[in-house]
Amino acid sequence: MNLLVAGVLLWSVVHLFPAIATGGRRALVARLGDGPYRGLFALLIVCSLVCIVLGWRSTTPVAVYTPAPAMRSVTLGLMVVALILFVSARAPTDIKRLIRHPQLTGVLTWAVAHLLSNGDSRSLVLFGGIGVWTIVEMFVINARDGRWRKPVVLLINEGTRSGKEVLAYGFRKYGYGKTIGTTSAGAVLAGRAFMMSNGGLLLLAVADVSVDGERLEGKGVTPLIEVPFDIRYAEGSDPQLARAIELLVKTVSD
Questions:
Q1: Is the same domain home to 87 and 19?
Q2: What is the mean pLDDT of the segment spanning 230-243?
Q3: Domain that holds residue 7
Q4: What is the CATH number of the domain that holds 202?
Q5: Are residues 141 and 168 in the same domain?
Q6: pTM exceeds 0.70 for this model
Q7: What is d(CA 243, CA 195) in angstroms, rounded to the nearest whole number?
Q8: Which alpha helices (DSSP H) does the chain contain, by range?
């Protein structure tokens, strides 16, 4: 049992180290080099797996609780979910738009699935220990990386005007995502409508507008990624939308 516990602890510590001790990791990489650091990391992971396998085989299981027979079917279903989540971390899927840590969530699901069908002492140590590690790892990464911002892009063109230009300006300046398209209209002056005696309507600019001290009138917002779009030659396609989707898919896949 001691060898199994040691293996689970080693696995957890090695994986938690880069997230908890970011400064220590950088110092170690600077001292050893990126390649040797990765090699040391892999070696420690292999050692932990060897300890887990040998510890599992040498430990005599002792019943702690008796799983319900119906849990076998639940376990099989959860294993499928765990596999999908685990693979989605490296595949171009929409799952990463909904779940921040699909791979860790998959491992946690895998651990819970086994605990539902195995109530012995060594299963509690292995699957319970790995499950606890995934939860701690997710909390640590969230604390390190801050609030999760899902990938988003903003499409703008010469038809983007007034308040939408203010939105586009703030979206780009404060890094909420990438702006794609063409420069906006540059029409943000406040206007007022006046009724004419002949029944006509006269719209006049009555107030200037600046955003963070910058005047957008006549200037507009320039997108980070410029994608020209002339509807006369589009042939039913939308290159700006296509570029936005391509960028989002790549972001989610990385």
A1: no
A2: 78
A3: 1-59
A4: 3.90.226.10
A5: no
A6: no
A7: 44
A8: 2-20, 22-32, 34-58, 71-88, 95-98, 102-117, 121-123, 129-145, 163-173, 239-253
